[in-house]
Amino acid sequence: MAPGTASNKYSKKAGHSGRDAADRASDAAEEAVNSKGFELAARAGYIAAGILHLLIGFIALRLAGGGSGSADQSGAIGQLAGSPGGSFLLWFCFIGCIALALFQLSEVFLGAKAVPDKEKLGFRLKSGGQAVAYAAIGVTFGRFAMGGSSDSSSTTSSLSASLMSHPAGAALLLAIGVGILVVGGYFIYSGATRRFRKKLSGLPPGRAGSAVVLFGTVGYIAKGFALGVLGILVIVATVTNNPEQSTGIDGALKALREQPFGVWLLGAVALGLMAYGVFMVVRSKYQRM
Fold first, then answer.
1. Are 110 and 116 in contact (CB under 8 A)?
2. Hey, where are the domains in the chain?
3. Residue 103 predicted with pLDDT over 70
């Protein structure tokens, strides 16, 4: 036997063992993701997102009527925390959002296998972005569930101020603003074309199914419009070096109220966000997983 033969055989054997271990880990992860319990937990994440949008829409509607409040994640979740059964709902929403974030993360690696090669990158970026978004919402629910609190608007403003103090940070903020505008445009496009229906299966026939699609159409367009206003505010705040204008979705909705016919526009967006919340709750049942 040649001196290098045994070494080569050992290397090949180690390589096969490593691949086998990776395959077993991948199979175990896929089995866990496909389990009924995990699927139900992930579907609960859509219910959590629906509750959040319903509350934000309700606060925005109150703002349109001359009331006060913080129409952002922290304001909505804080209101939920003070309601009867709020503690249970906070933990329910926390678990659901984290499970849905893990599901979206699994899609980056496992779901992409079924996607054509030319679409893999876009699919992974979208799934990864959704994983981050649901994880962030889940963390906020968890913070309130453990008795804490947060102020999304002031946190956003402080972060913007820190980034604006550096040229690279300002460029990043501009990119974020443009990115939010693009996402907002995609929401409007998805609502107007009813593209979101591709994600649903088994919708009930007749008026019930039509109502689900209507809520989705109105909700997607309203959320896209709100995100568009937010993106513009981030860009304007960066260009004018005024971080106080960058206050998240709450600031975007309040800025909308100050425009001509702003009260009516804000009221329409508020109702649209509530429609999106209803759609997300229903989506938990009909979403393709």
1. no
2. 36-286
3. yes
